[in-house]
Amino acid sequence: MRILKTTQTYYPYLSKGGPPVKVRAIARALAQRGHDVTVLTADMGDSDGQTKLSELRNWTRSAWGWEAQDNGVEAIYLRTTQNYRATTINPRMLRFFAERLRGFDVVHIYGLYDLIGSAAGWYCRRYGVPYVLEPLGMFGPKIRSRHKKRLYRSLVGNALFNGAQAIIATSETERDELIDGGIPTGKVVLRRNGIDPAEFAALPARGAFRAHLGLADSTRLVVFLGRLSFIKGLDHLVKAFARLETAAQLVIAGPDDHDGCAHTVKALIAEFDLGARVILTGPLYGQQKLEALVDADVFVLPSRYESFGNAAAEAVACGTPVLVTDQCGIAPLVDGKAGLAVPYDVAALHKGIELLLGGGPQVAELRSGCAAVARDLSWEGPVNEMETLYASLTRTSVSSISPQVADGLETAK
Length: 413
Description:
Elements: E1 2-6, H1 19-32, E2 36-42, E3 59-61, E4 65-70, E5 73-78, E6 82-84, E7 87-89, H2 92-100, E8 106-110, H3 115-127, E9 131-134, H4 146-163, E10 166-169, H5 172-180, E11 188-190, H6 208-213, E12 221-225, H7 234-242, E13 249-253, H8 261-271, E14 278-280, H9 286-295, E15 298-301, H10 310-317, E16 322-325, H11 331-334, E17 339-342, H12 346-357, H13 361-376, H14 380-394, H15 403-412
Parallel strand pairs: 1-2, 1-8, 2-5, 8-9, 9-10, 10-11, 12-13, 12-15, 13-14, 15-16, 16-17
Antiparallel strand pairs: 3-4, 4-5, 6-7
Helix pairs in contact: 2-3, 3-4, 7-8, 7-12, 10-13, 14-15
């Protein structure tokens, strides 16, 4: 199959959250199965991740901006003329869609509030190319720019949803939100996110991250890793940590989402006199991220809303028990197996952190359960589901796709 994926942000823009990692993982897996995969995204300038754009292999300038070959995936980074926060203006996308869109069998659009995906949907509807829409948890206005998002939905978003052949939800919570919001039940496809086990096959030795921070091996360590954004519930986390009776250190690692959360967190740290017990490291990537997750006694994802929760999955893959709120899509997959799920509440977060820092048989059991949960979170199942879905939308012959997916399609007939 010839598959086009559109996304506002792609590797190596790791500071933009989960989409760059997710889209890349699915695209590369599909390419490895023999499909022609193209990712259309925006040039966001110099990357603040570990890898600079210029260091990617096999990249060239093109009519669209510049292109790179990434493990069999054609990645096209459109030239950006202007941007507003994470949304960019990329005029060359119009020429791309006019010239190349009809050459694809199916299009997968990730996200809602960007012009690349919106334009892709419009051209797909015009040319009769089937497309799948994955809202990335953006369906319902959450915290920021609610009025602007509602206006966008009325002008563009509703047509984008109505024209999609399938809408992807990454958790039961997101599925229910879509259906409650008026999306037909039969149109919503549930597909979780995943992790690449190969990235966690050779973990760093325990102690490197603590040594970097000057912490003793005996120091209890609570870690949050993600964007510093209000939707992540960091204000609740700091308040919960302030109540701890157990001596511990809290590390908050991630890029500033520029929504005022970082300022609020710093104000709370000062209010509760936590300056010596809370460390803001900034973003961590690659080996540094793994070192932090390995050294953590507890990983906390205190989100107000999280369509899935990739960082929690990565912590589990590092053998670290997690504490997530019941507003996180990953909660049912880890609760009682590799961690705990609690209500989005300061008192509940406090109690959960105390329990997991306390050790004992229950915590040991959760830690030992991480390996099995991590195996169940690999990308193989989700990629099978996407391949099956794409094939059903394009009427692809079963002989042209992977055997396990072909068997599934034959069984469904």
